[in-house]
Specification:
Oligomer: single chain
Bound molecules: nicotinamide-adenine-dinucleotide
Radius of gyration: 28 Å
Distance between the termini: 44 Å
Shape: globular
Number of strands: 19
Strand order of the largest sheet: 14-13-12-15-16-17-18-19
Largest sheet: 8 strands, mixed
Structural class: alpha/beta
């Protein structure tokens, strides 16, 4: 941090805490010292607060959340800044988020460079702004607008911030010089200290009618979450409480929020998502290969989506198919996808053109020669993929990453078809590839460390969350899906309706019930996989038989207008269908499956316990590097509720003993074939430990 006073009497505080100017304890100390220093310098007529590097303060130090409460420190510091007798101007650039925006609110004036963004995303961590934000923001922009900003958690741009009155001016050029010039102008115009805390909240923005809407929305949208409601409580209090009392309430509420399971889960994921790119044991000097150009083989559903990911990241990509017709169809789908993004205002027509220009369609494999990464996304057929990888070694440039998007095939067997198995890796995108954030990166025993590093860094460039897995059937996500979906299907054969099973899962917080997911993905997809890999599944005559029965009746899901549910053209709503129920009932009769009256608790346990159990096996086998990685897979790729932290975090939160005993309970009811506790689960449950614990020591 630096403090200098210009000849014109402007004290300039410049903070530099790379990489993103987090307000940690050291920064708070330095700022406090600066304020003390400024107070005793009579020549200071105004103060400017700016940051060096890529951004203004990006937020508070989330690592401090698990420690003792810090609000008083923030309160003291921000209060001292605001209490200065001379005008204080925050000059912002980059993204001012959370505590980063709250410090600006404590300044007397706010200016920013074009392109800056401002937000209070605390509710995404299950908490509320706790450094005065809930009390200062409404004094500037009113209660209604404050709630919009805080509850949406989405940052606003300069134009919107000016409209709201959050920002006083946009400045151009260099942030430091621009802010000093703004302060000098202020002084010339007689502008003095202007404390946000001394303003009154406009009562017209806090009527009960205004508060009702976000309250009802928070209750219906997040039935298991409390952060949004707590934020409403704090912000609305600003209209009736004096400022200091408002701050007292805010501190109390933020500390209560930090202690909720919701916040603990969300903070866990915040860190887990940052960990996934870290690779223990890799030499630190290992650098990722540069990816300046990509190629995708197969212009189908996945190939087209993957090409879009590259183009969106500004990387040129060659999209190859085996026939002109398939290629043109694929490029048309890409173009349509961009059209719908233009229609929804996500990108401009000019953006579309720029991105389409980065995607080059081709039929000749020779065009792969200059690609730094080649991703194969042809039909799910081992021989075909081996053939392609056999050809790649002769064409691809030396060191190019050779990736496959297979979901179910043995990547080691694909790698053996090339003379460069060290370059081969799985890049398992999820559908739609241009939307879903998860990317499973699958290494074989032969994959080089360099290839892994390149893949993990590439994921970042593509704005994906990568999770590293070792080769096994289903990798992390789909392998855990097996038991989860198996029980859901089995329960509909036992007489639970698809709606009931899905409702229990959705009430738990899954983005979509699993049977509705099957209808959306296509029941044929699941059946084909199960037919192709019959040797890998247990000898259970009821295994996935609901899928098989519906498939045999031509009910493939949404694409045929019927599956577990019935669909009406142009409408995605699920309708109950007696015909589906009759098919399921007849199947149960044929398989002599006894009907059962399921409680909601049973439905949930029978789906979740196998999911958790398999996750623990995956962890123990080293297929996943960390428990947190498994949580990221299921929250980023499979709609597991983030506020429950992912399946393994959730297991720890309900206790491994309960998980273990639950599995034994169903073992007694249904036998050991599907109900066998993972050995690590049995051990940790016996020792009264958690997975998070074990993950640290791995004894
Ligand atoms: N669809 C999904 O949800 C999904 C999700 C994850 C992974 N995957 C995997 O992605 C891969 C592709 O799946 P998809 O759904 O996009 O399939 P798709 O049938 O939509 O597309 C496959 C494309 O590959 C082309 N192709 C076939 N042989 C080729 C060859 N020799 N050279 C060049 N192109 C060739 C076809 O013409 C077709 O356009 C599969 O391995 C699949 O398991 C699919």
């Amino acid at each position: 941090m630096a403090l200098e006073v210009t000849d014109g009497g402007v004290a300039v505080i410049t903070v530099n805490n790379p990489p993103v100017n987090t307000i940690n304890a050291a920064v708070r100390r330095q700022l406090t010292d600066a304020v003390v220093d400024i107070r005793v310098r009579p020549q200071v007529r105004a103060v400017v607060l700016v940051c060096q590097g890529s951004t203004f303060f990006s937020g508070a130090d989330i690592g401090e959340f698990s420690g003792p409460p810090m609000e008083h420190e923030y309160r003291q510091l921000f209060g001292a800044i605001e209490a200065l007798e001379v005008p204080v101007v925050a000059g912002m650039h980059g993204t001012a988020l959370g505590g980063g925006l709250e410090i600006a609110l404590a300044c007397h004036y706010r200016v920013a460079l074009p392109g800056s963004r401002f937000g209070l995303p605390e509710v995404t961590l299950g908490i509320i702004p706790g450094a005065g934000g809930t009390q200062r923001l409404p004094r500037l922009i009113g209660v209604e607008r404050s709630l919009e900003l805080i509850l949406s958690a989405r940052p606003v741009d300069v134009e919107r911030a000016l409209e709201l009155g959050l920002l006083d001016a946009q400045i151009n050029g260099e942030i430091r010089a621009g802010t000093i010039a703004y302060a000098e102008e202020l002084l010339k115009g007689g502008g003095g200290a202007r404390r946000t805390s001394e303003r009154a909240v406009d009562p017209a923005t806090a009527t009960s009618a205004i508060l009702e809407r976000p309250t009802a929305q928070a209750r219906s949208q997040y039935p298991h979450r409390t952060a949004a409601l707590t934020a409403i409580e704090a912000v609305s209090a600003s209209a009736r409480l004096p400022f200091q009392q408002g701050l007292d309430l805010e501190s109390e509420l933020v500390n209560r929020a930090k202690a909720t399971p919701e916040s603990k889960a969300l903070v866990h994921l915040f860190f887990a998502e940052r960990e996934t790119r870290k690779l223990p044991g890799l030499p630190p000097e290992l650098r990722a290969g540069v990816v300046a150009k990509a190629a995708v083989i197969g212009a189908g559903t996945m190939g087209g989506g993957i090409a879009i990911c590259f183009a969106n990241a500004g990387l040129p990509v060659t999209l190859i198919d085996s026939s002109r017709e398939a290629l043109e169809r694929g490029l048309a789908v890409v173009s349509n996808t961009y059209d719908s993004m233009v229609k929804r205002g996500r990108i401009s027509q000019a953006d579309k053109q720029l991105r389409m220009a980065l995607i080059h369609g081709a039929l000749d494999y020779a065009e792969l020669a200059d690609a730094d990464v080649i991703i194969e996304a042809v039909f799910e057929n081992l021989e075909l993929k081996r053939q392609i990888f056999g050809r790649l070694a002769a064409i691809a440039k030396s060191g190019a990453l050779l990736a496959t998007n297979t979901s179910t095939l043995d990547i080691a067997a694909i790698a053996q078809a090339t003379s460069r198995p060290a370059d081969v890796i799985g890049l398992h995108f999820f559908s739609p590839a241009n939307v879903m954030p998860l990317l499973e990166v699958v290494r074989t025993d032969a994959t080089s460390a360099q290839a892994i590093r390149t893949a993990l860094d590439l994921a970042k460039a593509l704005k994906k969350t990568p999770v590293l897995a070792r080769v096994c059937y289903g990798f992390i996500g789909n392998r855990m899906m097996e038991g989860y979906a198996r029980e859901a299907e089995r329960m509909v054969l036992e007489g639970a309706t698809p709606r009931r099973v899905d409702a229990v899962l959705e009430d738990f917080g899954m983005a979509m019930g699993i049977l509705a997911v099957f209808d959306m993905a296509g029941i044929d997809v699941s059946v084909n996989v199960h037919k192709a890999h019959a040797d890998k599944y247990p000898a259970d005559p009821s295994y996935y038989q609901a899928d098989f029965a519906l498939h045999a009746a031509g009910r493939l899901g949404q694409k045929t207008g019927k599956g577990y549910y019935r669909y009406i053209a142009g409408d995605r709503a699920r309708h109950d269908d007696p015909e589906a129920l009759a098919i399921l009932q007849a199947t149960a009769l044929r398989l002599a499956i006894a009907p059962r009256a399921h409680s909601d608790a049973e439905i949930l346990e029978r789906c979740l316990l196998p999911l958790i159990n398999e996750g623990i096996r995956i962890l123990a086998e080293g297929v996943a590097l960390r428990a947190g990685d498994i949580d990221v897979v299921w929250t980023a790729g499979y709609g597991f509720p983030r506020y429950r932290g992912g399946p393994l975090f959730y297991a720890d939160s309900i206790g491994l003993k309960a998980v273990y005993e639950g599995i034994l309970k169903y073992q007694r009811l249904f036998g050991p074939m599907h109900w066998q506790p993972a050995p690590l689960l049995a051990r940790l449950a016996g020792e009264g430990r958690t997975l998070a614990d074990w993950d640290k020591v791995r004894d």
